[in-house]
Amino acid sequence: MLEAIAGTLPGILEPVVLQETALDVGEFKLVPALMVVVMLALFLGVGYFFRVAAVDELWVAGRSIGSVENGMAIGANWMSAASYLGVAALVATLGYFGLAYVVGWTTGYFILLIFMAAQFRRFGKYTAPDFVGDRFYSDWARGIAAFTTLAIAFTYAIGQASGMGLMAQYIFGVSYEVGVVLLMAVTIGYVALSGMLGTTKNMAIQYVILIIAFTLGLYATGWVENWSIALPYLEAGPQVAEAASLEAQFVEPFANVGYYGWIALAFSLIVGTCGLPHVLVRFYTVDNERTARWSTVWGLFFICLLYWGTATYAAFGGLLYDREVTDGGGFTGMSGEEADALVVLTTQLAGLPEWLVGLVAAGAVAAALATTSGLFITASSAAAHDIYTNLYRENATQREQLIVGRTTILAIGALVTLIGLNPPALIGELVAMAFAIAGTIFFPVFFLGLWWENTTREGAIAGMLVGMLVSFGAIVNDTAIPMYTGVDEAVIPTLATWVPGTSSALVGVPIVFAVIIVVSRLTDDPPQEVKRLVRQCHSPEPMHRMETAEDVATDGGTTEE
Predict the structure, then answer these.
(1) What confidence tier does 1 reach under pLDDT thresholds 50, 70, 90?
(2) Most distant pair of Cα atoms in the chain: their distance
(3) How far is CA 148 from CA 151, 159, 317, 383, in A?
């Protein structure tokens, strides 16, 4: 039946075929399939047990999550298919340039830790658009932020759907299209049921699964190939040197992309990390700012456990591909589908037992599910809380909000599934586009909103609109139009060179900062109650449990300019 459903989709969605690549995707594999089925059943059971009946549990888990658990949820939220599969693929095929993904995605958390985590928790709202709407006292600002949140969730989730399809091919022996439909259906079901509370519980479980699978596959490959014994991350020097002898770009800086391209990508990923709504909402699920800070520390630790191994997987996988597939012909010529599945392909080419290769594939499914669930929660909150309740029906009941939220999950899930059948780019590239959107539109607004009390609503709205023009325009120019019209290159090649869709923030962020500052200077200052609210976000006094800046701002701060 699923094959029939996939076959009825529009003709522009050409099937992604992996049958003739190195990954063994032709047969149903019993043990790996049982692993995934048990894992999915566990997620559905946890989602049902922690199912929600109140909006604060749906959006922010009742602010009941501890720092370690929240750190694991941050790690799982972050360890998407792009991190689990895509980063190793990008390092293997792009070499030094691919390391920009590791640098950018990790560095952003230090900015979050220092400048934003505690301040966001003090503000104490439900969502990122909630912060924008209240901080800038504007329904227009809230609406733009909600639309941007939906756009980020949609773009980001397409990459996760692609990863699910690739892994379903290996595990179940089904077509890519059926794999996308099947696993996305499971994701949509348990997120719609459980909300943020159940999703957070599942994210902690998903992190444990994915980090065990990823690490075990790396260690086992090193052992059977006699490449490493104790710490493959530190023992892989000879393999990196050998990979570099086959493909010089593996270690040669800027061989594929110039200095500007590397800096633009790393910068976009750094600021994008600080602007992702599904990351920032994690700070609202804890009871005070100290827990928010420690959640970030734990999250960074859990993230580094995986990122440390991505370059090692790239070296191991590249050498195995050269030996087993091309017979000395190198490895950067592998297809995009093979590259996106490189972590699993590495363990297969190393001759590891089928159950172990299946476990690594199951870890990729867990990573994709974890991130997709977080994205769907932020999308549903943007639609139900920020658009429906705050902009359309202020007296909406909790039941109405839950219905709208779950309907949004179903709708955006269906759309992501449809586009995921023929994704317009590699997994890592799709996620980088989402980061570019978040960094260009949201980061300047969040940063100035928290640290400059004179930022006005007019400045924030103008900045977000300019950010949308830059980031969306770049993606349309070099990805969307070429992909769906058959054009071989960007509509405006010069624009694609300096403002690529995956790296538009390097140009966009300074422009948006300048627009916000200039417009804020030219317009009336924010109301005094808003200024007091901003000051309270930086108060040296520790917060009480569950307290927010709004709870105390009427008695705190001053009215001085």
Answers:
(1) very low
(2) 73
(3) 5, 18, 37, 11
Q: Residue 539 pLDDT more than 80? A: no
> Phi and psi for 175 in degrees, rounded to 5?
-70, 160
**CA separation, residue 487 to residues 98, 155, 401, 454, 477 (Å):** 26, 21, 43, 46, 11
Q: State which amino acid sits at residue 368.
A: A
Contact 212, 397 (CB under 8 A): no
CB 195 within 8 Å of CB 51: yes
CA distances from 297 to 280, 304, 386, 547 (A): 14, 11, 29, 22
| 95/254 Cα distance (integer angstroms) | 9
Q: Mean pLDDT throughout 455-474?
A: 96
Query: Other C-beta atoms within 10 Å of 26: how many?
Result: 10
The 10 Å Cβ neighbour count of residue 62 is 17
Q: Which of 70-79, 154-163, 197-206, 471-480 is modeled with the greatest confidence?
A: 471-480
Distance CA 394, CA 385 (A): 10
DSSP for 175-201, please give it.
-HHHHHHHHHHHHHHHHHHHHHHHHHH
Task: Calculate Rg over the CA atoms of the chain.
Answer: 23
Q: Are 123 and 280 in contact (CB under 8 A)?
A: no
**DSSP 8-state class, residue 3:** H
| Per-residue tokens: 14 | 């050409």
- Judged on CB neighbours under 10 Å (0-12, 13-18, 19+), 480 is middle
- Measured CA to CA in angstroms, residue 110 lies from 287, 294, 386, 433, 505 at distances of 21, 12, 28, 21, 18
